[in-house]
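Inputs:
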Amino acid sequence: MKYLSILKDMIKNKTFMVGLFIFISVLILAVFADKIAPYSYDLINVQEKLLSPNEQYRFGTDQYGRDVMSRVIYGSRITLKVGLIVVAIETLIGVSLGLLAGYYGGYLEKFILFVTDLTWSLPPIIMALAIVTMLGPSLNNVIIAIAVVSWAQFTRIVRVKTQSIKSLSYIEAARAFGENDVGIMTRYILPNILSSIIVLSTLALPTAILSTTSLGFLGLGSQPPDPDWGLILKEGIAYMNQAPWISIFPGLAIVYTVLGFNLLGEGLRDIMDPRLKA
Amino acid sequence: MNKKLKFIGIISLILVLSMTITGCGDKQAEAPTESPESEQPMEQVEKTIVIAMPEEIEGTDVQQIRWDNLIHNLVSQPLATYNLELTELIPGAAESFEISDDGTEITFHLPANAKFSNDAALTAEAIKASMARYIETSPYSYDFDPIQEVIAVDDTTVVLKLDSAAAFLWPVLTSVYGGPIDANVAAEVGNDVFNRGVVSNGLYKVDNWVQGSQIEFVKNPNYQTFNPIVDNKGPALIDKLTVRFIPENFTRISELEAGTVDLVVDIPSENIDQIRNNENLNLYEYLQTGIDYIALNTNNEHLSDLNVRKALALAINKDEISAVLNDTVKTRFGLISESMLTFDQATEDKLAQEYAFNIDKAKTLLEEAGYKDTNGDGIVDKNGTELSLTLMVALDTPALKNSAPIIQAQLKLVGVDLKLNEYESPYIKQKIKDGEFDMATRFFWWSDPDILYYVIHSSADLPWENEMVDKYLDEGRYIMDLAERTAKYAQVQELTMAEVPLIPLFSEYEYMAARKEVTGIKLGADGKRVMMNDLDIK
Amino acid sequence: MNDIIEYIFKRLLAGILVIFAVTALLFAIMQLMPGDAIELVSSPRVPAEKIEELRALWGLDKPVLVQYFYWLSRIIQGDFGTSIVSGQKVLLLIKERLPYTLMLTGGALIIQYIIAIPLGLIAAYKKDSVLDRSIVAFTIGFWSIPPFWLGILLMIIFGVWLKVLPISGFSGIKSIILPLMTMALPGLAGVLRLTRSEVLEVLRERYVETAYAKGMKRNSVLIKHVLRNALIPVTVMFFLNLPWTIGGSVVIETVFAWPGVGPLLWKSISSQDFPVVQGIIFIIAILTVISNILGDIFSSFLDPRVRQELKGEIV
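Outputs:
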């Protein structure tokens, strides 16, 4: 019943619905890219290079003669993959560590806090930069780097919430009934903080995607000829004067998608946990 | 509540103000002049030029740097130099010079009143001291190995006694690395400070270096040259010159087009067309003294087969690459470019014919090597292993970076699966050295063919070795006669390319662009020899 | 009060530990990168023996731990060492560039607060109106643009087309505007959202209604009571966000050829110029730890609820 009312709230919340619409539209592009895109994303055709948008190439062509629209469509796969995986890893690590720290306290908590503070002690881009430079420039390494420097936000909040829930009386009762620690954490504490986690995760998506774009600008991240939006945008800037369409379309795609996730997150926050100040 | 609010407000204000103040304060605090001289003459109607380049230099001291660029040309003048076509030696800071018949003795005659930019006398003793310091300080000190003795016969005569007719010494002597510096000042202020403001004999002297932003130069009133090619043989026509460092390509080009920058060094190939078409700008072109190539690991299971290597070379369509790069590169089949000494058109043509783009021949060679597409996936294989190779691409060299996807597509047509990975060049260099690579993009820049010693000699990083080539490389260093030397290096190229340890791709055209109001730039064939004596602005 | 002092002390201690752990971490990361600084800077012409010589000169041939402790012992005495790439003193390099970065990051934060707080106030006051929605949409829009693209677009509009502002580099007040706006605009949304929700919450509080009942004019109620309370978490957020912005500066400083610390750090990491990297990281870590502590102090000092939470940390 609780879920039904949440559903009603969702539909009423315009921000959430717009965000959802955007997310689903990008999802459709990603899943059905093969069917929607008119060309393959790495089809090089030097004769047709740098053509402005026309009937055949709706978004124009790039410096190798590749269709920009197809590249943008296929690029949605990379964007979603990056966003979702990064956030999934962050959430997993961050929440687990937060639960452990909040529940057990003591030296475990001190240790987890220390490590978390460590990843939080430098601006994330800088840490991510160092990690990717060490591991070598690739999309996967960027994913790892960003996830590593971002889990701290989850750990902190989950830890504090776990602590406050832990001391509630029904936890005592559960323990009396023979529940073990893991059981308590997963069955009693977790569900209570779930809504906060969902909001935080959704709001972490835009940051993850934009960070990837920034790292891509520095040359770390997806390698050509991957149709990564950040990569196309960066390379397209050089052609800003003669072929602005190469950078405009992936740029708009990024803004569209990130905006969507932002709205989704804001909407979710309004619905689920208006008091949450991340 | 009120108190608390005030408290927050005050603390925040203090913090923020202190940050902004340190921002402004420190900035003013380091306006000081870095160079050891004291005065900067300020004239009424000053001519100024702003130059923009992508990367900040390590330092201005030609004896401490590892990479040189235009700036070092501005602050230092070698005793002699080459003419623009690189065929003849001509005087520079020295009034004249003689080379003994056997090439082991070089005599330079300095002008009587020669001075450094700080008014210290530029005598033979000073040259001697400068050379001694080079040997002590420079990472390229071995450049002067052939020099046994430097004798200051009198104030204006310097004699270099060599142990042999080292032809490869001249490119050094005539480059910025051969520019004399005031060793006394260097010893006095220490290398660090000297690097920030070198005292030499060039057209300009360092006035102020704002870290990360720009270097300001003023003209050197003591400058004089005996270079017959330039019109203005005295101090520069431009009073003040600022070099700005703008790493982002788009930003740099935008500044040029907006007119806030007068001259830009290093124009990315993507912007060449728009600059060419811009009526307010002049484009200057020079050819890389060197080549961009793909190094092959001859120890790799596939690449150890000569037929495979030849097939790869034949499968690459360099004309198509050049088209994509907007013809900003010149296709290359040999190892020496037109702007280098000992370039031989005949050799280049011969190799161009031998390794001309030929897909059928490439396919045949792969077949002969035992590669067939047994599972119909488009990639050939042998003994169950697919012909899959990884190419390390230099992401800091745009021409190579932009060619990589094309090469990938071209090799796919003959059934080779090429994976691309972008890295910074130094990383690639290290990997080649460790032998941990399949294929990698590399390049070199030096006007003397002796650079090949560091590329294909057995002692170099490339795994491939050949005794004959080693021998010829050693010999080539000491042949003074240009024709003879050319023949020797022709042999080096042919022998090397018979085994294809590397695939030459192209030599890049480098571009400088300036506003139409900027005149008087004379560009040598190798681009490094920029004669800025006549530089002027309307 | 004693509580707080003890807390500060403990946090400082932990902070110092964190600072050294971070520098050790970065050091380790750079060691794991292939090659080393000397190799990386040398052109193909430099022979192997010379490279070995230089490497020994810089102590790069010593075991990693030795190198790290050597660096550690020097920096404690205030000796930041010398850059391997350029031979300049690291402290000098940082000192010359840091102010420019702080100008941008500090300035951006100020601008964010100057613009976002009043806007947040208005948005909350006129909740759900067209004005509210457009303000929120506007700021979230900027939040969604890749910062480097925003910078380039602003540069094109104001520098190239309109020609009212300098395109790049530092040349006085005008030249700071574009990079500053590029840094400030994306973060507006965060501050705005917080202000708006805090103000909304306070507006709901009973005593505000009581104040209305007492007949106080709406505006003065708003400003006196609401703002005062809402500003607390906002100020706390200011301190916590302070060090973050330094990260964003790498990209923006590169785009605008701004002589800050960002591009230097980037270049030094990729060329493994560890004295420079360590030096910069050291300073940034110190700034971060101090800001975090200040933030925590403020929040505990001002907000009893948060003080409870923090007390949990002191355990």
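Remarks. Chain C has 14 helices and no strands. The CA atoms of residues 10 and 314 of chain C lie 8 Å apart.
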